[in-house]
Design brief:
- The chain is α+β, with helices and mostly antiparallel strands.
- The chain is built from 6 helices and 11 strands.
- Strands 1, 2, 3, 4, 5, 6, 7 and 8 form an 8-stranded mixed sheet that branches. Strands 9-10-11 form a 3-stranded antiparallel sheet.
């Protein structure tokens, strides 16, 4: 079980003002940093939510990431957090995060204790305004990845994401076909960059404040 002292301290910190863009931008590609300097969130942005779900694993605190299947979309084949677009039946964005986590990786909402949320993040290529939520599970869930959406489940180790030696600059092929260098996390050999890395960057700053 994840120590109660850790979850309580995190819950209390998430209830305070968040680091926001200043922390997110540390893991933003240069092109994204330039966009953020002159971009505002449009009124027609699509509301969405993701879930960072901590659980006690064999290698300490872990959380699920997913390698998305290839499809005709801007996030095809990328590493992300369980999540997706708001639907009317969700009620609110927390409902979206919980529904998507169940659909994509089999985490039942009743298992999740929500601690709070991180700052919203706008993703221009897909026009998504993403609300990340943070929760904890009492034990490792029986993951059931949805094969229509998930090519691979990645059980990320929090200690490695926090370790600076797993931070790197990676060359990736952008959806436009241009090769670019981006800040990224090396998670079990996978390159985690872009919006997911930006959300994790804010989380890591918060965790650093607690230690």
């Amino acid at each position: 079980m994840i120590p109660q002292e850790f979850t309580q301290a995190l819950r209390e910190r998430l209830a305070q003002p968040l680091p926001g863009l200043a922390a997110q931008v540390r893991m933003a590609p240069l092109s994204r940093q330039q966009q953020l300097a002159r971009f505002s969130v449009p009124d027609n942005a699509r509301r969405s939510a993701v879930l960072i779900a901590f659980y006690p694993g064999e290698q300490g605190i872990q959380f699920p990431l997913i390698l998305r299947n290839d499809y005709k979309g801007v996030h095809s084949g990328q590493i992300g957090l369980p999540g997706g677009q708001w639907e009317e039946n969700d009620g609110d964005l927390l409902g979206t995060a919980l529904r998507e986590a169940e659909e994509e990786v089999g985490v039942h909402p009743s298992q999740v204790e929500i601690l709070g949320r991180l700052s919203e993040l706008y993703i221009p290529p897909s026009n998504f305004l993403v609300q990340p939520y943070l929760g904890v599970l009492p034990a490792r869930p029986n993951f059931i990845p949805d094969p229509t959406e998930v090519a691979q489940l990645i059980e990320a180790r929090l200690d490695r994401v926090r370790d600076s030696k797993y931070y790197q600059k990676s060359k990736i092929k952008h959806r436009t076909g241009v090769e670019m260098e981006v800040p990224s996390f090396n998670v079990q050999g996978h390159i985690v960059w872009g919006a997911t890395a930006m959300m994790l960057s804010e989380l890591l700053q918060i965790l650093d404040e607690l230690t």
